[in-house]
Design goal:
single chain; 342 residues; alpha/beta; 13 helices
Length: 342
Amino acid sequence: MKRTIITLSLAMVIGTASLSSLMIGTAAGAENLKGAGSTLVAPLESKWAQDFQARYGSKVTYGAVGSGGGISQISARTVDFGASDAPLTSAQQANCHSCVQIPWALSGVGVAFHISGVTRLNLTGPVVAKIYLGTIKKWNDPQIKALNRGTKLPATGITPVFRNDPSGTTYAFTDYLSRVSPAFKKKIGNSTLVDFRTGSGAKGSPGVSGVVKSTEGAIGYIGEDYIHQNRLVTAAIQNAAGKFEFPNLSNIEAAAQAVKKVPANNEIHLVNPPKKAASAYPIATYTWVIVANGAPKKAALASWIYYAVTTGQSFGPALFFPALPTAVKNAAIKAVQAFQKT
């Protein structure tokens, strides 16, 4: 039987000599893993699973059921790990009974649109909020035209498309809009599942992508890899510095670099970074893996998560996931060490 032991000196990685070495092992065929959750991270997780099995022999299966579904399933212990683009709420943390969240991927939520003949569009957070509140109804609204001088915008009605399942992508999107629009915060708020006032709902990132692609006048919030898979067009969103930015690798990285410290619970908010992050894309987010302390397969889980936050990061850029910043990667490694000792 093939067996692999990963040895990591945390003193070398983190620079803290007092930390002991981390020994993580997995045996092929004995500790296969099952996970569920975020559709945003699913393309990257698929690459990880293929490479992890090729390297170490352990099979990882994953159901892209949405962040809410992932949280529910790990809370019920029907999977070995969950994945969410939204950090656990205090109620979810209590219901999950000794679960830990570990950041393992970084991405951005793009705002895709479908307007025939229009390939470039500038939008601000407050304008997007008004679209999803239903107060801006047509693409030639004066507020949109003022941001796109020289672009011929049609009188086509706007169809806002949203997730109708509990979604971390919705969490990041509504977190951003709640920070830039008091009206949105009051009327809709920030959660994985909210009551949008207008538009069309769809399940998962693939569902939202499909509706935007097939609906003239549609707009939707979607992970960047799905936008590129479906050849959708993304709007440039104005950041706090006043610049219109797209969710590309460098702009998502710029948003992540604006956060210097990782809290003990690993909850990190990247949306609407400050003006000093001049090139930052304003709707960036982390994705977390969620595991239960003392899990029966904790050795295999520790190997899997350690792989994802180290070697697995090399697959990210091709799928529009920048590598984790050093401080976040180190925090994730420390969390893996603590989890492995439970």
